[in-house]
Amino acid sequence: EFRPGGLWRFVMHGPDGKDYANECRFESLEAGARVCLRHVCAPHFTLDVRLRADGAGTRVHWAQTFDDAATARAVAAYAGPGNEQNLDRLTRVLAG
Predict the structure, then answer these.
(1) Whole-angstrom Cα distance, residue 8 to residue 6?
(2) How far apart are CA 38 and CA 41, in angstroms?
(3) What is the pLDDT of residues 7-19, one digit of tens each?
(4) Among residues 2, 37, 62, 80, which is most buried (max CB within 10 A)?
(5) What is the pTM of this model?
């Protein structure tokens, strides 16, 4: 449901072979500029992605704010590298 208030449910398949159910609620959508969502199941966080034209490309600002420092520390080992992998895949797709 790609609209403010809409839900996005998906399953992440971890490198450990386990499946991880996820649910997010879109908080704000600005065409070509911003997507903000709230991860409504554990671990709880808000993700704010902003896009800005930069020469022939697009600059992506990615801010993931966790509800508490302990949760942020607990997921840092996989969230950071996982986000980088996703952005690398996106770069390859957009490059054609």
Answers:
(1) 7
(2) 9
(3) 999 998 888 899 9
(4) 37
(5) 0.85
